[in-house]
Amino acid sequence: MTQISSQTAAQNGTATATAPSDRIRVDLQLIADMVEPGTRVLDIGCGDGELLGYLKRTKKVDGRGLELSNEGVRNCVAQGLPVMQGDADRDLHDYPNDAFDYAILSQTLQATNRPREVLAELLRIGRKAIVSFPNFGHWRARFDLMFHGRMPQNPNLPIMWYETPNIHFCTVRDFVALCKDMDLIIERSMVLNESGSKVSLGSHSNLANFFGNQALFMLSKKG
Amino acid sequence: MSISAPLSRRALPGHQIVLGETDKLRLDSGVDFGPFTLAYQTYGALNANKSNAVLVCHALTGDQYVADDVHPITGKEGWWRAIVGPGKIIDTEKYFVICTNVIGGCLGSTGPKETNPETGKPWGLDFPVITIADMVRAQAMLIDHMGIDTLFAVIGGSMGGMQVLEWCKSFPDRVFAAAPIATSYRHSAQNIAFHEVGRQAVMADPDWCGGNYLLEGKKPARGLAVARMTAHITYLSEPVLHRKFGRKLQNRGAITYSFDHDFQVESYLRHQGKSFVDRFDANSYLYITRAMDYFDLSVEFDGRLAEAFRGSNTRFCIISFSSDWCFTTAESRRLAHALNAASCNVSCVEIESDKGHDAFLLDEPDFHMVLSGFIQGAAEARGLN
Lengths: 223, 385
Known about the structure:
- The complex is a heterodimer.
- By secondary structure, chain A is of the alpha/beta class.
- In chain A, about 35% of the residues lie in helices and about 20% in strands.
- In chain A, strands 3-2-1-4-5-8-6-7 form an eight-stranded mixed sheet, sandwiched between helices.
- The longest helix of chain A is centred in the middle third of the chain and has 11 residues, at about 115-125.
- Chain B has two domains: about 10-190 and about 295-380, Alpha/Beta hydrolase fold, catalytic domain (Rossmann fold); about 190-290, Rna Polymerase Sigma Factor, Chain: A (Orthogonal Bundle).
- Chain B contains nine helices and 14 strands.
- The chains are: A alpha/beta, B alpha/beta.
């Protein structure tokens, strides 16, 4: 079973939103900025509904969520957000084709059993997919492996290799290669620094792959 | 405690309406039924544009007294006072709450213990077999009579949840929000099996008299009590039985080497059976359990449940309880998947509880938090806040 849960906040180690003033985690804000108002959005691994609630309030989207943890689902529904308990690997096949304008998968792809299939499902369900993931090409990860001979561990990936739910790591370039292989269009891409802010280093250059802590992509299908 | 003096239909508090006088109720069995009486309670006031009506649907042995201070038969509080009332989750200061005694029931609505106008005698087994859809169509006739076009919400647990789902299938445009709780889109084989045990217990009681006990001046109290005892076990869970009773003995220091109720759990079940008999009609029990058994929303779509909800704009909140082995979370998830496949707006939540199926009637803060959030979110979308 794949972990989709509110672990992302802890994983990213970034500041969480203060509820009343409409501010959300910086990396979620970047995702929200990609979403057009009034659209239909599926947030897979929606946690406590931070992004979904924000999109509903500020962009009047018709938003739905899928979340693995019961606690997350409960908290979402208690806020009036339509969320169901489920799993990216197992539960996406129920959704009809093109049911959403955007299928969002934030910080979860690396925790799925079959990332390629999940990605294909996102683009079957949504006209566009918005995907973010931790970049294993980041210089610190390379440094850990090269000089310490240890699997990378840092504030954004704090869990030891034997306990982490993250089982399919990739770098920005790996991901770009997969998109090419799957014949997907990269509509937008950016890398984020450790606090989740955008880094201006071109889209998915070698430099971005080296300095980007997380990557954020908006994808669509050809044709 | 129970007051066993039977109340006549006329003496029951609340409303009663005769429906189906000209346009009869076409039952699933093919019978055109009517006129018939529907007994119901309302709480709160209908707003000017009739957009704040909430229909609460009761479970197998429930009734219309969902939020009364004092139940006319049992003397206890209404069965869902934790949820329905002034300032509560279903706030009667904000919503107009309607709850009907289902057709086939025994608290004022036409059912097997009422008089068959053709014979002047109690219906007994001449009463037509009814279904969940029949119950819902009868409710819809009442809602029509009230001039309500769209219900803000239809909410109910267990058999009440079946009615909620039937409403959403049969009248999709008349339900803005739906909360089917601790329920399923179909009655499982295990649940049918338990119901059959209950019915056989009733029918094996010689005082059932082939269904004519009212004419014979008798009451199949033992059979009905056994039926209730069996069913009651299915509404609980092993952990909750263990926590409440364990192997504790009832008012005695040692086992008695007899078939007396040595164990507290036996005494408890006997009490449940006995008090049930005072408030429920045995034939109604047969008819209503049968209605639940027949329920399967997917059957007319060759098992493709999603078809039942195709094009629905209703927002759904499906709630299940982790220890409920009558209506499991797995069943709720199947329903949620079908709703997803039909592009419906659906939430699906499992509440952690060791209290079994009955948890929906009890004080479960997480459940209340979820239901409250769902209703408030729907009210906002409906412009009721």
